[in-house]
Specification:
Structural class: alpha+beta
Number of helices: 11
Shape: elongated
Strand order of the largest sheet: 1-2-5-6
Largest sheet: 4 strands, antiparallel
Mean pLDDT: 88
Radius of gyration: 37 Å
Strand content: 5-15%
Helix content: 55-70%
CATH class: Mainly Alpha
Number of strands: 8
Low-confidence stretches: 450-466
Number of domains: 1
Amino acid sequence: MNMPVLILLAAALLSGCATYQSRPLEPARTAAAFESRTLDNPALKMFLETNLGHAISPWPPSSWDFRSLTLAAFYYHPDLDVARARWGVAEAGKITAGQHPNPSFGFIPQHHSDTAGGLSPWTLGFNLDIPIETAGKRGYRVARADHLSRAARLNIAGVAWQVRSRLEGSIFNLYAALATEPLLQREETAQSEIVDLLEGRLSAGEASLPDVTQARLALEQTRLLLVEIRKRRAESRVAFASALGVPREAVEGINISFDSIGAAPSLPSASEMRRQALTNRPDILALLSEYEAAEAALRLEIAKQYPDIHPGPGYQWDQGDNKWSLGFTVTLPLFNRNQGPVAEAEARRKETAARFAALQARVIGEVDQALAGYRALLAKLAAADALLSAQQTRHKSAEALFEAGETDRLALAAAALELESAALNRLETFSRLLQARRALEDALQRPLTLSESFPADPRPEKENGK
């Protein structure tokens, strides 16, 4: 074989090799890219239209509902990028698992210092090692890689649910902050009127100082609550932007539709919810895939007890004499039969089975606990609605008595204060119910079916957070 042929062979072998490309991370550039994210991005519009199945006009929409916001979070949130990247690693592992071992080629030239009869002093030897895997090792590797890839893909669904859940929680908190503020303002107005009336009576000697002091303290407490709720409103908006995966400036001025918040999910039976959780949660399914991967890994280690065969044909040109050889190499299992790796694989399979049983028990506990909390808050909301309705009736009665001259303004202001307190109590209970609904959905890792409405706020001026 002459030199040009060797060069061509080497070039053919190297032509399919991957080449390194440098991609350094630039923190400043990454941060600038995040800060430039907006909700009027044309690429986001295309993503939403593809997933919603209809055109969006105008763009950006005048009001963002929960479904559109969820898709925006799926588009932007970096946690999903991490999950997709991990799946990409698992997919690359399938390529590695499916590769056949490459043969090896050896070239052994020898020079003889003592030659006779004009023979060439060179001996040229070539040998080839062709590994042949036995006992289905490659199939077990591929099966393990397939199961790990499926687990990584299911992890994307789990991360997507976490993104959705955090977004829903931030919207619930923002709704509560926006709806609470006007109620506190009305309560402050009623308390201010009571303080003014009591101070007037104190000056006239018709009220006691402790009554005035108590009313003032209640007023100051409400003002402190107003400061706190404004702080919560600002924090909730920042948390909302973080849940979307965009900077705070991107959500300034957008209108959020809270229409779906008043919808109550219809609940299947507790046993049905447990069944749904145990058969549909992505983390359950992912751990099942991990167990299948552990099974394949154990089979692979057991198969490694059987040695691979390495046929090794060779050729030697020995001072003009052509010598051909046929042989093979095999590992002799004299000192071990791969007992250690087999034992490790068995232990990993046992560990995965224990993790799966523990996850199932935790899921059942999460479903039962969330369901109990949700049902308790449903009952409490019904009681809060009844109390608010009673306070409405009392306030109307106080107004009628005041207009008839049978009661004074202080009694009317006190009735108004009780009404606002009952409205605040109802809103707080409703907000806790929303969080309980979110906890129940998290336990199932799927949204509950919306089919009926919560009891509507019986007040004429219903607060919707806008």
